[in-house]
Amino acid sequence: MCIRDSNMTRIGRVGGDCAIIARRDSGYYISHLEGPNPPYINKQPIGDGGSQLLNDGDTIKVGNTQMQFHI
Questions:
Q1: What confidence score (pLDDT) does residue 53 get?
Q2: Buried/exposed 22-34: b ≥16 CB within 10 Å, e otherwise
Q3: What CA dihedral angle connects 67, 4, 21 and 50, to 10 degrees?
Q4: What is the pLDDT of residue 52?
Q5: How far is Cα 29 from Cα 16, in angstroms, rounded to an integer?
Q6: What tens digit of pLDDT does each residue of 4-62 get?
Q7: Which of 4, 37, 40, 56 has its CA 20 to 30 A from that of 46?
Q8: Rounded distance, CA 55 to CA 35, Å?
Q9: How far separated are the first and last CA of the chain, in Å rounded?
Q10: CA 24 from chain center: how many Å?
């Protein structure tokens, strides 16, 4: 499921692995929102409590869903 607002997009399911992509002045960032597993960027977990800048072409994995980020 993907819920989109003007500056944020939520990826995942409520009660499961969920992440949010937020548009900031310096670019797009992904953060872990809920669930036991953090999102992966290019096969690396983003870490606890942090956010990571996304680059064009990055591979994102949230739960069992994998996608590619494009600006």
A1: 95
A2: beeeeebbbbbbe
A3: -130
A4: 93
A5: 20
A6: 557 899 998 888 999 999 999 999 999 999 999 999 999 999 976 689 999 999 999 99
A7: 4
A8: 24
A9: 20
A10: 14
Q: Is the pTM of this model over 0.90?
A: no
Which tokens is 60 given?
């994102």
> Which residue type sits at 25?
D
Residues in Cβ contact with 30 at an 8 Å cutoff, skipping those fewer than 6 apart: 19, 20, 21, 39, 41, 46, 51, 52, 54, 60
Q: What is the 3-state secondary structure (H, E, C) of 44-61?
A: EECCCCCEEECCCCCEEE
* Amino acid identity at 19: A
